[in-house]
Amino acid sequence: MVSTQLPQSPEVLPPRLNQGLIAKNRYWYWRGWRIRYQVFPATAEAATGLPLLLLHGFGASLEQWRDNIAALSQQHTVYAVDLLGFGDSQKAVTVFNTDLWSAQVYDFWKAWIGQPTILMGHSLGALVALNNAVNYPEMAHRLIMLTLPAAREELLSGWVESSSRMAEQFFSTPLLIRPIFEIFRRPGIIRRVLTSIYQRKERVDDILIRQFVQPTEERGAARTLCYLVRSRTDLQFTPRTKQLIPQLTVPTLLLWGEADKVIPLSWGEQVAPLSPLVTFNIIPNVGHCLYDDEPELINQRILDWLEEQFSV
Fold first, then answer.
1. Is the full-model pTM beyond 0.85?
2. Longest dimension (CA), the chain
3. Rounded to an integer, what distance in angstroms lies between the CA atom of residue 289 and that of residue 125?
4. What pLDDT, on a 0 to 100 scale, did the predictor assign at position 290?
5. In the list 20, 121, 239, 296, which could disulfide-bond 125, CB 3.0-4.6 Å?
6. How would you list the strands of the sheet with 26-30, edge to edge?
């Protein structure tokens, strides 16, 4: 049984702009850790859609949805949350894994939403959303995944997997991680990495770079990275995707960028057929960050699918 601390009165910070929407940062304390979230009420007068909960990818934050929320919140009240250790949520000292983030998301849902919800996640967030849809079915009415990572054991096996794990454990020591952290938190390095991932290079602007730099300036960020890297070497870090997909009980949309260099399309083509509930859409000419490479296209695909679901 997951225990939930009583929600604290959310602290409100200066608003940020999201395609004309004013977003206030709110904070909730979970197991003693600070968690940031934002809420965008549905804007259409006749909006009847269920709430939508957005979960970001590894290393990102709720601000990754900068050009998605305005469109999605027309018909749905949108909740966006920073997973523990990322964004403006606390840089915790703990063992991280998918089950921990899933427990955070479930307790957030119980505290602030409390009704069947559309779960939507990107990459790591998609895996967390999938894990919640399977293990906490009362919270998931529909599931939307923008790419879906594999457990390391699904990609590597035998001595290759064990050797890789030992190497990562060696390099996850603070003496090595901290210098690497100082190098890779530099705006120029982050820009080069993102430019290699994005198809539309002009989308890698100063606002995007700041989204990734700002969390690294928080006290304890380097230490949390050490815990994240070491946690990733544990067999319990993520469940096997191929075991979760067949357990789905809700209609699911899986979107994948044809040019994804981080999680290849071939993996999506393996997992999508594992459940008849999965609608698999390949998006041409976009990469791993498809929600931001072509936000208008992705928003429309999502809204069209949701409209089909609720018109049946």
1. yes
2. 59
3. 12
4. 97
5. 121
6. 26-30, 33-40, 78-81, 52-55, 117-122, 140-146, 252-257, 278-283
